[in-house]
Predict the structure.
Amino acid sequence: MNNVEQTLSIIKPDAVERNLDNEIKQMFISKGFKIVQEKKIQIEKSEAEKFYKVHETKPFYNDLCSYLSSGPIVAMILEKENAVLANRDLMGATNPKDAAEGTIRKKYGISIDKNSVHGSDSLENARIEIEFFFKD
Ligand code: CDP
Ligand code: MG
């Protein structure tokens, strides 16, 4: 009952471009997440490469980093009990085709690469990713 966590969420360029940021934020709020901090920014490709370094050996790495840096994004610190897992649940599967009803990716995702949101996958990565965007 008392395991409040923070996690990092990013509304990706495909969703910001379609002006879905407010609707997506409302989905988080209606599920009980508090948006502790947020900023709308565009990052350099070199920063995207650092952010997604865990994927550097994957065939999709270059396209992924080009994509994340291709337009404005909204980075948010979300807070809730068990926020890391709760956010992964609300996001849905990586491929919107496989995402469950009621998830953000089911509702808004276009394709596996344009899947509208990022969310930290562990508490440790949440700390690292929050630091990445909100260290100042
Ligand atoms: O974002 P998530 O944690 O669900 O997936 P991931 O496996 O950590 O992959 C990071 C991102 O890479 C995904 O959200 C996709 O946008 C992209 N990706 C891709 O373009 N093609 C794949 N086959 C797998 C992932
Ligand atoms: Mg991931």
Notes: The pocket of magnesium ion (ligand 2) is lined by residues 121 (CB under 6 Å).
